[in-house]
């Protein structure tokens, strides 16, 4: 169950950081320094969520 929770939370946070980083970074106690770096962070979070989902699929025998 943990990889699924991690995948969902990482994906939601990644999408939020990709779409509107300046609006949501203060919620995470971070100052919006550069929107490009914040969007790269969002893309990295999406990749982490995708990796967690792939791990769950492979470890539970999904195809």
Notes on the protein architecture:
The chain starts with a helix and ends with a helix. It has 3 helices and no strands. The longest helix is centred in the last third of the chain and has 25 residues, at 35-59. Helix 1 (2-19) runs antiparallel to helix 3 (35-59). The chain has one domain. By secondary structure, it is mostly helical. The model has no long low-confidence stretch (mean pLDDT 84). The radius of gyration is 13 Å and the shape is elongated.
Characteristics:
mainly alpha; elongated; 3 helices; 63 residues; 75% helix
Would you report the number of β strands?
0
State Rg: 13 Å
**Portion in beta strands:** under 5%
- Domains counted in the coordinates: how many? 1
Overall spatial form:
elongated
Unreliable runs: none
Through-space gap between termini:
17 Å
Helix and strand sequence? HHH
Average pLDDT, rounded to a whole number, is 84
Number of helices: 3
- The residue fraction in helices comes out at over 70%
Helix/strand/pairing category: mainly alpha
Quickly describe the structure:
This protein is mostly helical and 63 residues long. It has helices at residues 2-19, 21-24, 35-59. It has one domain (2-59).
SSE diagram, text form:
Blueprint: H1 2-19, H2 21-24, H3 35-59
Helix pairs in contact: 1-3
